[in-house]
Amino acid sequence: MTVAMDANALNRFLAGEFPQIAGSFRVEALEGDVLTARLIVAGEHLRPGGTVSGPSIFALADVAVYCAILSRIGPVALAVTTNASIDFMRKPAAGTDLLARCTLLKLGRSLAVAEALIFSEGLAEPVARCSMTYSIPPK
């Protein structure tokens, strides 16, 4: 496995290209084939009742998969999601950040497939599972 961007480079890239989300998402670690990303849960991520909203959970999965791909191919801002499927399995824990553990399943020249498991920080059972396919633009 060749790493084109480490966690620090990915965080700098997100801050530069997507400043609107820089305060909400962060790449925590890149270890082997697994990237871990964090959603820093704040009021804008909650739905009535105080739980993290489905769109926020989905966004974490999308950011994690995007960063996992970029960690291998470098800063390609125009890589885009072409397919996504998410299973919401349990309610996230209140008042805690969410972590996504993302694994690349296939990295080709034009398509990448990855899976992300989403956890409430400190808990072992996943909150959601997401499978995504990304289109990688030609060089």
Task: Explain what the structure shows.
With 139 residues, the protein is of the alpha+beta class. The chain has a single domain, classed as Hotdog Thioesterase (Thiol Ester Dehydrase, Chain A, Roll), CATH 3.10.129.10. Helices cover 22% and strands 37% of the residues. The protein is built from two helices and six strands. It has helices at residues 7-17, 54-73; strands at residues 25-31, 34-39, 80-88, 98-107, 111-120, 126-135. The two termini are 20 Å apart. Keywords: Hydrolase.
Question: Which SSEs are present, and which pair or pack?
Answer:
Layout (H helix, E strand, L loop, with lengths): L6 H11 L7 E7 L2 E6 L14 H20 L6 E9 L9 E10 L3 E10 L5 E10 L4
Antiparallel strand pairs: 1-2, 2-4, 3-6, 4-5, 5-6
